[in-house]
Amino acid sequence: MTTSPIGGSARRSAQAAPLWTTRPGARRYVTPEPTLPLGDPTGGADALLWRESVDGHLAHPRVHIDRNVDLRMSDGVIMRATVVRPADRTGRPVSTPYPAIININPYNRAVVDAIDTATHTPVIGPAVTRASKAMTGGAMDLTGGLLDGFGINRRLVRSGYVQVIVDVRGTGASHGVWQILGSREQQDSVEILGWAREQEWCDGNLGMGGWSYSAINSLQAAGHNPPGLKAVFAIEGSEDIVRDIYITGGLPSAFIPMWLSVVNALKWVPNPRTVLHDALHGNTLGWLLSRIASPATELTAVVAGVLTGRDPRIHDNPYFDVRDPQIDAITAPTFLFGGWHDLFGRSTPRIYRRLNLPAGQKQMLVTDGYHFDMGTGFGGRQSPPRIDVLQRAWYDRWLKGVDNGVDGYGPVTLMQQGGQWTSGSEFPRAGARTRRLYLTSAPSDTAPHARFDGRLDGLPGRRHARLDTRPDLRGAVSRDMTQVTAGLTKGFAAFDEAGTQERGALSFTTPPAAEPVQISGALNLRIAASGQGHEAIWTATVNDVAPDGTSTVLTGGALTATNRAVDSARSDYDDAGELLSAFHPLTEAAKLPVEPDVVYELDIDLVDTDALIDEGHRIRVDVYAGSFPRYLATVPDLIRTRLGRQSLVLDPDAPSYLTLRLIGDPGW
Questions:
Q1: Which residues contact 128 (CB under 8 A, 6 or more apart)?
Q2: Please, are residues 486 and 213 in contact by the beta-carbon 8 Å criterion?
Q3: What are phi and psi of 593, to 5 degrees?
Q4: Within the chain, which residues score under 50 in pLDDT?
Q5: Which of 18, 272, 374, 513 has the fewest CB atoms within 10 Å, measured from its CB?
Q6: What 3-state DSSP class applies to 10?
Q7: What does DSSP assign to residue 385?
Q8: Where are the alpha helices (DSSP H) in 568-630?
């Protein structure tokens, strides 16, 4: 195998880019053509230096933590912050100004303190580290550095940074009413950055970062281009919370009320580390009055919206528009992390494409995982560096000007489902060609357990068929359940494999692939369908089916029949005009009428993915009449379906088909 230096790292050349397959009976090299000019997803020699800078000798022996910092916003509301500074051996903060890293989250700094205490106390900390190393093959912790990206990162601070962690307005110990990523909250972020830049411990250079919510508000703040913000490190952020999780395809998610319940409960918990300070400085009353003013922010409205269908937040509307980050306006170098089955899985590739930054100043890393397991396995011999290692390298490059080669990493690093980690220049992969696979009534003889076993073919079927299905609860034992619970059921075979859910599916499966092929990019499922009521709920998955029959979900999506309108200006098409991903307005005004037993065409947009379909494997499309609890219907919509029969109509004159982008020729 030859090597060539690219961007400062030792990387495999495009000519020597075999893909190692280790499935039983398939231990061989396979080289699908053409593909990304593969680099080294581990970061090569550069990453060894990045890791040494984190795990080796640090400039300062200790950190100084001040958890009682009050910040008064322009409207008078008091925000509460923790400032972590480098310190000498006595624990006294050093006077040298350093770049400041800002993390603003709603999960209560008491949680951050608890994690920090658990991982750094003399007894618990080493035990956690030893157990994590044993479970991750040498990675520093079970989450692959995720906790350092979420909370206090002592090693980052000791290397010459200041960290500022702030409770979002109306959460934790901060006063005011929680606005959930609203315009006032975004203004808070900009004001906090301005305050930090003026402090004597800051050299004027600012970075932002965090996981989930704080990744979103980092992207929001970056879209305002505040002075001094020069780097963003966003772990599982979102550019469109409506389509990601609030009302995917017009269907609310069970995750939102669960998440609102957790954050609203946490905001009532006083921080033990600051409660005395708050009492002595008269902050307790203001905090309590803020909580009384909004005891369960938006929770009752969301529940009422699902029950009555009358709350405006069950549709896309200006409430959400102001909350979407202005990705196109971001100028700070931005590193993005995502997961194919993350709550915000559709966003990471879209953010990467929308960033008006050159490759290297924007990076995208996507793993085959969920929300809570981001970083698991990172730091291994064939995987990306730990999250904390990449974070440090990113900040060193853009906040300190260290030419460490991190801008030559990636810029697109992907865990290919069914394959391995790869690193290259673009997504979708170079050479991916648009294909249609048609849903036909011919039997595939691979899914006798399904409600219907059809064939997925390269040519349209010749026979008419009406395939009936009904809603059921099998989605509660599926990858949909693992996704909506952010990964909590991961590892349970019944949830990871689609067999149980497929008992309620209209299933369509290709013949076995004659050679390994790759799926890369957006997918769209067009179906002709009807229902017995004035609404119909459709969900779909695309699966990889192994020779032993194991069916594994690669991606999925959902759409209600009344939300079938397509905004062509915001949809994605290939160069020939083929629809790759439909954009549905999801506004109340854009809803279209549905009449019983009338056939309508629906385009179900599926989350982008990247997958290897090995030789002998098959692609399967499963179509369902809903998937509870990943996709909830409002009670009025549920009534409009009459909980009755829904029909997928196979018509040679109006075929149903999957549009995807493939590399290779499977022989279908």
A1: 118, 119, 141, 142
A2: no
A3: -70, 150
A4: 1-35, 136-141
A5: 272
A6: strand
A7: P
A8: none
Please give the pLDDT value at position 132: 55
Contact 429, 73 (CB under 8 A): no
Q: What is the CATH number of domain 433-663?
A: 2.60.120.260
CA distance 603 to 612: 24
Q: How far apart are CA 348 and CA 304, in angstroms?
A: 31
Distance CA 208, CA 378 (A): 22
Q: pLDDT digits over 355-372, tens only?
A: 999 999 999 999 999 999
Secondary structure, 3-state, 150-186 = HCCCHHHHHCCCEEEEEECCCCCCCCCCCCCCCHHHH
Question: What is residue 129's predicted lDDT score, i.e. its pLDDT?
Answer: 62
Could you tell me the sign of the dihedral formed by the alpha carbons of 274, 216, 186, 301, in that order? negative
Residue 107, token pair as written in the block: 């999960």
Residues 342, 376: contact at Cβ < 8 Å?
no
pLDDT of residue 275: 84
The angle formed by the CA atoms of residues 600, 606 and 612, to the nearest 5 degrees, is: 135
pLDDT of residue 494: 87
Of 608, 160, 143, 126, which is closest to residue 351 (Cα–Cα)? 608
- Tell me the β-bridge partners of 422: 414
Q: Which residues pair with 231 in a beta bridge?
A: 207
Q: Would you state the pLDDT for residue 542? A: 98
> Rounded distance, CA 225 to CA 231, Å?
11
- Which uninterrupted H or E stretch holds 46? helix 44-55
Assess contact for 583 and 567: CB atoms under 8 A. Answer: yes
Instruction: Please answer whether residues 305 and 252 qualify as being in contact, where contact means their C-beta atoms are separated by less than 8 angstroms.
Output: yes
Question: Minimal CA–CA distance to 552: which of 614, 478, 485?
Answer: 478
Residues 6+ apart with CB under 8 A from 534: 562, 593, 594, 595, 596, 640, 641
> Cα 601 to chain center, whole Å?
29
First CA to last CA distance, the chain: 33
| Cα separation values, 311 from 308, 316, 322, 626, Å | 8, 11, 17, 22
Q: What is the pLDDT of residue 64?
A: 97
Amino acid at the residue 271: N
The 3-state DSSP class for residue 388 equals helix
pTM of the model: 0.91
Distances from the Cα of 24 to the Cα of 327, 421, 477, 568, 614, angstroms: 43, 19, 27, 44, 12
The residue extents of the domains of the chain are: 45-424, 433-663
- 412: β partners: 364, 424
* Cα distances (angstroms) measured from residue 105 to each of 155, 168, 319: 20, 5, 20
